[in-house]
Design goal:
2 copies of one chain form a homodimer. The first copy, chain A, has 205 residues and is mainly alpha-helical. Chain A starts with 7 loop residues before the first helix and ends with a helix. Chain A is elongated and about 55 Å long. The interface between A and B is large, with 45 and 45 residues. The structure holds a DNA duplex (30 and 30 nucleotides).
Chain lengths: 205, 205
DNA sequence: AATAGATGTAAGAGACGTTAACATAATTTT
DNA sequence: AAAATTATGTTAACGTCTCTTACATCTATT
C-alpha cells in the first residue's frame, strides 16, 4: 500500500518521451478517484496531471474501462498483500487472526473509499473478467483458509466456505455502510473492535 | 416550495406541452439505469425517451445530481413500503418477519441492481442530504422495530440498534456480493432462505 | 384582453472519450 | 552505421454529454 512515488519528477526517467507514463497515469487516476470520487474523475485530467495530452493514455490502454481495470487490479493485489501481512503476527487458527483480517478489510474501505467503491462498482461492467475474478478469489481464499484453520476443518469443505462467506457479508456490509456514513447517521456508536469481535464470535462460535 | 405535486400518476394530461414530463423523466431514468447500468446512462437519453429536447429536463431539475436524487428518493420510498408489506403476514416479533425483511431487501437488489448501486453510489456526493438520510432512517427504523419486538426489548435500546445493525450489515453485504456475482463465483451455493435463517438465528438467537 | 409565470426549443459553450493522421524517439534488422 | 520498424507522443477532430442563454409558446391570473 505504501508504494507511492513521492514525486512525479523522480519517477519520470525523462529518457523516453515520458518514460513512465503508464504507471504515472495509474497513480494519477488513483489520486483523482479519492479526490473527486469514483464517478467524477476523467482520464483527461489524469493525463493533464501526468503532463501529457489527453490522447496519450490511449497508447497504453484501450479505453477508460481498461484503465480502471488496471487500477482496480493493482488495488486488489495490494489489499491481498496487506491482509496477509496483518494476520501474520497472530497464531494460525486464532480468532485474533480473523479479527485482524476483518479490520484490514474495513480499514481499506475507510482509507480508500473511492477505490473501494470503484472495485465494487466496476463489477457492473466487468462481471466476467478473468483477472478481476482471480484477484477476488485470492482475497476470499485468504478468509476461507483462516476460517478453516480456526474451525479445524478442511479448507475445501463447504462449511468453511459458508462460514467465511457469512463473515465476508458482515465485514463487506459494514465497510459499505461505514463509508456511506450510514452507521454514524443511525447512531451506531459502539467501537469497531467490539463489533468485529462480536461478528466473528457469532459466526465462528 | 412544495415539490410533492400530489399523486403524479394521473397520467399525462397532454394539455400542457407535455403535461407529465417530470415523472416521465424519472421513469425513463429508472429504466435506463437498469438497461445501461447505473453509470452509463445520460439525462440526454432520458429526455429523448420522453420525447423532449435535451434541455427540457432542466426546467424541472437543477441538474443531473438532483434528478438522480429524485429517482433514488422514489426508490427508497418504494423499498420501505415494500418492506412493510412483506412482513405484514407474519406475526409481530416472529423470526419469520425478520427473514421476510431480509429477503425483501435482497430481492430489491436483485431485481433492481442498477438502482441499488445508484442508491449506495450516490451517497458519495449526497452524504449529508437530509431527504435521503430520512429515507435511509425509515428503512433502518423498520428493521430496528422488528428486531426489538423479536427480542422483547425497547426500540430505543442500544441493544436493539446493535442487533439490527448486525443484521443490516449481513443482508446489505450479501446483497452487494449477490449483484456483483461474487457469491456465485466463489462457489457459494446453499439456498438463500437457509442463509437468511442462519443469519437471523446467529444475530438474534 | 393583458400580463406574468411555466414549460418547451434551438443553439452553443465547454468537457470528455476516443480515433485518425502525423511526428519523433528507441530498438531491431540489415 | 544506415535503414526499417516499433513505441510513444502531439494536434485536430467527431460525437456525446451537461448545462446555459435567448427566445417562443402555452396556461393561468388579473
Amino acid at each position: 500500500m505504501n508504494e507511492e512515488r513521492a514525486s512525479v519528477e523522480i519517477a519520470a526517467k525523462a529518457g523516453y518521451h515520458h518514460g513512465d507514463l503508464r504507471s504515472q497515469l495509474l497513480a494519477a487516476v488513483r489520486q483523482l478517484i479519492e479526490e473527486k470520487g469514483s464517478e467524477n474523475f476523467s482520464i483527461a485530467e489524469a493525463a493533464r496531471k501526468a503532463g501529457v495530452s489527453s490522447a496519450a493514455p490511449y497508447r497504453h490502454f484501450n479505453g477508460k474501462p481498461e484503465i480502471l481495470k488496471a487500477v482496480v487490479t493493482q488495488a486488489m493485489e495490494a489489499k491481498a498483500v496487506e491482509m496477509r501481512r496483518v494476520m501474520e503476527p497472530y497464531p494460525e487458527g486464532s480468532i485474533e487472526r480473523i479479527n485482524a483480517l476483518g479490520k484490514c478489510y474495513i480499514d481499506f474501505a475507510r482509507q480508500h473509499p473511492g477505490m473501494f467503491r470503484l472495485i465494487f462498482g466496476i463489477t457492473e461492467s466487468h462481471e466476467d473478467d478473468e483477472i478481476l475474478s482471480k484477484k477476488g478469489e485470492q482475497v476470499f481464499g485468504i478468509v476461507v483458509e483462516a476460517v478453516a484453520k480456526t474451525l479445524g476443518i478442511s479448507t475445501d469443505s463447504p462449511e468453511a466456505k459458508k462460514r467465511a462467506y457469512l463473515l465476508w457479508t458482515m465485514v463487506h456490509g459494514h465497510s459499505w455502510l461505514t463509508i456511506d456514513g450510514k452507521a454514524r447517521k443511525q447512531g451506531i456508536e459502539f467501537p469497531e473492535d467490539q463489533l468485529l469481535a462480536e461478528i466473528s464470535q457469532r459466526v465462528l462460535g
